[in-house]
Amino acid sequence: MNNISNLENYSEDTSNAELVKKSQFGDKSAFEQLVVRHQDLVFSLAYKLTGNHEMANDVAQESFIRAWKAIEKFRGDSTFSTWVYRITVNTAWTLRKKAKKHNTLNIEDTYEPIVIDEKKDPELVAINSDLSSVLVGALDKIPLDQRIIVELKNIEGRSHKEIAEILGISVTAAKVRLHRAHQKLRQILEEVER
To answer: Which residues of the chain have a pLDDT value below 50?
Structure first.
């Protein structure tokens, strides 16, 4: 979808809802405009869920392919961005499970190194790097469904309502899952401290 040809047909003033309607009638250029508008958001989420640039690209591309195939079923109960976000979460989940099943993904190797500003205090840089790797390691030890909720809430800053919409669960379920995930993370981090 990198080759976008007819984007001039739609201005920035064209609403997402209008682009969705046109996409549902088979207008590929309308869907391409939706992709352009949401590709950064989708990639960002995919990267946070996978921690790997290459896998995030695969997740983002597969998410938009799935969205195109399912666009006719989109009822508009949520915004397009929430809908494509949910597809991205499910796609990341599926691809990670496949990768783990086929031993093609070593969780410890998925996170790319953090680029550190050399002007910072070296001791502070070392402490932050250690903390970051401990948190990444702890996140990798909790189940993927809990990790997704933690990342949506604590990294993305999403509300419980948004999380519920993205995951297709109730707000109460989102709160309960987040609480359990935080408990699990706390338990893992306490073990690391010992």
So the answer is: 1-7, 104-131
Q: What is the pLDDT of residue 166?
A: 84
Q: Are residues 20 and 42 in the same domain?
A: yes
- To which residue do tokens 């006719």 refer? 72
Residue at token pair 């707000």: 171
Q: Which structural domain range is residue 163 located in?
A: 113-194
Instruction: List b or e across 116-130, with b for residues whose CB sees 16 or more CB atoms inside 10 angstroms.
Output: eeeeeeeeeeeeeee
- Amino acid residing at 11: S
Instruction: Specify whether the CB–CB gap between 91 and 66 falls below 8 A.
Output: yes
pLDDT of residue 145: 79
Looking at the structure, tell me whether residues 148 and 165 fall in a common domain.
yes
Residues 136 and 95 in one domain: no
Specify the pLDDT at position 193.
58
Matching residue, tokens 């500003």 = 117
DSSP letter for each residue of 122-134: HHHHHHHHHHHHH
